[in-house]
Specification:
Number of strands: 20
Radius of gyration: 20 Å
Strand content: 25-35%
Shape: globular
Low-confidence stretches: 336-341
Structural class: alpha/beta
Strand order of the largest sheet: 1-2-3-4-5-6-7
Number of helices: 10
Mean pLDDT: 85
Order of helices and strands: EEEEEHEHEEEEEEHEHEHHEEHEHEHEHE
Distance between the termini: 24 Å
Helix content: 25-40%
Largest sheet: 7 strands, mixed
Amino acid sequence: MRTSGEDIQLSSENGVVALEHTVLTLDAEQSTLVNFLSSPGPAYLRGKVSGKQVLLSDEAYRILVARFPQTPFLPCQYFRPIVLGNLSIELLPSGESPGSSFLRVQKNQDSLFFASFWSKQSSSAFRKAVFKPSHMLLLKLHANPFQVPGTNARKEVDRLIEFAQKILRAQENLVIAADSFGEAQHLASRLQAAGLATACDTRLHAIMKTLGESMPPTEVPAWLRGLRKHSVQATEPAVVLVSKEQLLAQRPRSLPKGVWAWLGNELPQAFQQPWMSGLTFVDAFAIHNAPDTAEIQTLVSEVRPSQVLVYGEGAPQVVQWLAGRGVPAELFAPPRLQTLF
């Protein structure tokens, strides 16, 4: 599929979104010449970076460079435009996780704002999202916002904190399964701010340590310095965050003891893992790092585009929803089809 602005032309073929007549691709999973990486999380967890050269934020670079020492990264500081061929490129923090970025491309009088991983949560663990007006908004969705429960996120976090306080008063651990990037950091910052002892399992603690080491010592937030690795010998109860990805991938050798809770709404799918059926989750909390419809509305109102292109999970519903609100939105690429072979 192809679409054009006045000066910027986009194409999508075999799942690769590219700016035509340039070497730049956007969040491609295949090897391309220059690939913009909007968030370090998926690459870190997958153990793979796509692109012969990878354009990313300076913060994302510091997170990934030790894991991928042979990758030719092109780190770019936030708010500092660079020139790539006939394009002016600027990275802006997107608030989803450490190092996550929006990409704004300017060519002559035309501009494109690419949003892939982002979050405008009221309490951001790291940098908050920053938007910039652009002619065209390209929106990539990683979760269907209409499948996210319509729960007030702040109230749901408050409910979880109250629940955690109750469990800790009973001298038990509260074990919470959370996404390793974004979700875990936002929640850890809120738990620490509430004065709750917070720890991480081995996998998640290694990620948190990497995040801390990627920052100048004076910029490491207090909540991150206060996190500790969970120990089975610990005598004081704590809220223990465990890596959701690690749980779903394979059974760890040891699991924290305590009352279990889940973040998100995909808990039924998790129990398709036979060994996980032995875990007892007493509650699930509708806390998501993926944008909901309110955040999409904020994104559109801040960018003020004359054209919105949407692709990914739930794209048709989002296009219809935006069009019903007078936003000139259209489907950019059909959702990826699943194959049996």
